[in-house]
Structure formats: structure tokens, C-alpha cells
Design brief:
The two termini are about 30 Å apart. This protein has helices at about 15-25, 55-60, 70-75, 120-130, 160-165, 190-210, 225-230, 260-270; strands at about 5-10, 35-40, 45-50, 65-70, 80-85, 90-100, 115, 135, 155-160, 170-180, 180-185, 210-220, 240, 245-255, 270-280. It folds into three domains: about 5-90 and about 180-210, 3-Layer(aba) Sandwich (D-Maltodextrin-Binding Protein, domain 2); about 90-180, D-Maltodextrin-Binding Protein, domain 2 (3-Layer(aba) Sandwich); about 210-280, 2-Layer Sandwich (Alpha-Beta Plaits), CATH 3.30.70.120. It contains eight helices and 15 strands. It is an alpha/beta fold. It has a six-stranded mixed beta sheet with strand order 2-3-1-4-11-5. A five-stranded mixed beta sheet has the order 8-7-9-6-10. The radius of gyration is 24 Å and the shape is flat. The chain binds phosphoribosyl ATP (PRT) and zinc ion (ZN). Phosphoribosyl ATP (PRT) binds next to helix 3, strand 9 and helix 5.
Length: about 280
């Protein structure tokens, strides 16, 4: 029994998908030029497909699970379940207009033409806002539509914003935040659900590790209580005596979000020689 996973054959999500599998200890041996590859050390078979096709293949159980952008999942409206955000392929789907235009809110779009590759998501957005506009579906180079007079606005994926900028456009409103997600077929048999749970456990350990750092520092013993109070740790910090009798070494784990704040407070409290080390896997 093997779990069949669909990932993008080539494009923005491909390398990160392979990297995540590798970080989960899953090695894909044979080449990406084939339609599928088998892992040597986990019961999984990887299918390389166009991202647009992945939701359909997962709905039809040709693949059991897939890694794909949320934007594609919502646009395709297939009967699949989003199980886990994967933390890569981050972008947003945004309305954009010519730079000189004044876009106060979505009512700007009333009676206008919008070019997009995401007609379903855009239509829902317009419906929700009670706006009537004409949607022009185009499959690529959406950003040139206003320049050639094809549309008054576009709705497209943005990450750095430089594509919009180079085409004389500005981001007016974000309608969806997106990242790569793991989707699953809705009727997975039990044995495959168990394999999926094993894979998910690994993915979550990798994600947690990325969001956390291991920290080591030296503290004068008379400041220990104050310093320990600042550190959350997985349970509580490890404290080891240094050869110098007045000092201890303190080890702990810090979350990325609170990282800099806590480092500043630790320094102020008298911590010295602070080392911060990446964590490879984190099992809690
Ligand atoms: O061949 P296939 O159909 O599989 O690939 P594709 O060409 O349809 O998709 P691809 O590889 O371009 O993108 C795959 C997925 O990556 C998307 O569905 C998103 O989930 C995610 N992603 C993340 C992005 C971007 N960031 C992104 N910036 N997808 C596209 N873009 C494009 C955007 O369309 C625009 O043209 O990049 C340009 C904007 O980038 P900035 O940095 O200039 O703002
Ligand atoms: Zn595509």
C-alpha cells in the first residue's frame, strides 16, 4: 500500500515541495522528468503534475493527497479537504488598477472590466460586495491587460509587487492570502489515512522546528531567576553549572515571533554569550 502524492511538475512550488519531503526524511530517487517517482524509505509515490490539475486528480482519487496553492484549490472548487498549510509559496490574490487611479474601495469596480485567471474567486468577491463588473478570463500575462485597453483592473497573484510596478499598476485590495497547502481526497481508506497521519506528523515537526530556535546563554547565578522567568522552553529551561562557580549556562527554545523581544530582555537582565541555533526537527 502506497500513499499517492501529487506535486507540481515544474514551477514555483516544485522545489519547495521536494525540499519539504526531504526534510521529512523522504527521498525521491528517480528523476522529475518522469510522470511519477517512488520514495525509497517511505510508502509514498509522487506524481508530477500541473498545479491546476492537482485538485481534480485528488478529488478523483488518482492521487490521495496533493501539495498545491490555496488559490488553485479555491478557484477549482473540487471536493477535497485542506489539511495543513505548508508554509511556502506565500502570495496574495489582489485587485490592481493603473497607478494614477483612485481606488477607495471595491465600489470602484462597478461597471468596470476586470481581467483575471481567477474568475470563480473574483465572481464570489464581487457578489459578496454587491458589485456588478465584467470579468475577462485570461490565462497568462494578466498584468498587461490595462495597458492594452483590455481591462480597467486586474486580479492576479502578487508576491513582491514588482510585476505590478513594472506595468504601471498598483495593488488596490487583497482578496485572498495564499500559500501551499496539503489537500486530501475525501474518502481515503483507513490504511492510507494512517500513512497520511505519519506524513503529517513529520511535516508538523519540520514546521515547528522552522518557527523555533534553540538558545544557549551564560547567566550570573544571582540573575538566574530573572532570566529563567523570561524563557518559555518546551517544558522549562535547562540550567547547567559553568566551571566558573558564579555562573550557569541556560538552554531553551524560543518562538520566532517573540524571539527579538526576549533576546533584548535577556541582555538587559544580564545574560551573556547568547548563542542561537537552528532546530532541524521538533517533536512535542
Ligand atoms: O505549469 P503550472 O500550471 O504547474 O504552473 P503555473 O505557471 O500555473 O504556476 P506557477 O509555478 O507560476 O505558480 C504556482 C503557484 O505558486 C501559484 O498557484 C501560487 O500558489 C504560488 N505563487 C506564489 C505564485 C506567486 N507567488 C507569484 N508571484 N504564483 C504566481 N506568481 C506570479 C504572479 O502571477 C505574477 O505574474 O508572479 C507574478 C507576481 O510576482 P511579483 O513578485 O512580481 O509580485
Ligand atoms: Zn498552473
Amino acid at each position: 500500500m502506497k500513499l499517492k502524492l501529487a506535486i507540481q511538475k515544474s514551477g514555483r512550488l516544485h522545489d519547495d515541495s521536494i525540499r519539504l519531503l526531504k526534510e521529512c526524511g523522504i527521498d525521491i530517487s528517480n528523476g522529475v522528468n518522469k510522470l511519477k517517482a517512488e520514495a525509497t524509505n517511505f510508502p509514498i509515490e509522487v506524481y508530477f503534475l500541473r498545479d491546476d490539475d492537482i485538485p481534480q486528480y485528488v478529488e478523483d482519487a488518482v492521487a490521495d493527497i496533493g501539495f498545491v496553492g490555496e488559490n488553485v484549490v479555491y478557484e477549482k472548487r473540487k471536493k477535497v479537504t485542506v489539511v495543513e498549510k505548508l508554509g511556502f509559496g506565500k502570495c496574495r490574490l489582489s485587485m490592481a488598477v493603473r497607478r494614477g487611479e483612485e481606488y477607495m474601495d471595491a465600489s470602484f469596480l462597478n461597471g468596470k472590466k476586470i481581467a483575471t485567471s481567477y474568475p470563480v474567486i473574483v465572481e464570489n468577491f464581487l457578489k459578496e460586495k454587491n458589485i456588478t463588473a465584467e470579468i475577462h478570463e485570461i490565462s497568462g500575462s494578466v498584468e498587461i491587460a490595462p495597458g492594452i485597453g483590455l481591462a480597467d483592473a486586474i486580479c492576479d497573484l502578487v508576491s513582491s509587487g514588482s510585476t505590478l510596478f513594472m506595468n504601471g499598476l498598483k495593488e488596490a485590495e487583497t482578496i485572498l492570502q495564499s500559500q501551499a497547502v496539503l489537500i486530501r481526497n475525501n474518502q481515503l481508506e483507513d490504511a492510507k489515512t494512517q500513512l497520511l497521519n505519519r506524513l503529517l506528523f513529520r511535516i508538523q515537526s519540520v514546521k515547528k522546528a522552522k518557527n523555533n530556535k534553540y538558545i544557549l546563554l551564560n547567566a550570573p547565578n544571582d540573575k538566574l531567576a530573572e532570566i529563567i522567568a523570561l524563557l518559555p522552553g518546551m517544558k522549562s529551561p535547562t540550567v547547567l553549572p559553568l566551571a566558573d562557580p558564579g555562573w550557569s549556562s541556560v538552554h531553551s527554545v524560543l518562538n520566532e515571533n517573540e524571539f527579538w523581544d526576549i533576546i533584548e530582555q535577556l541582555k538587559a537582565a544580564g545574560a551573556q554569550g547568547i548563542l542561537v541555533v537552528p532546530i532541524e526537527k521538533m517533536i512535542v
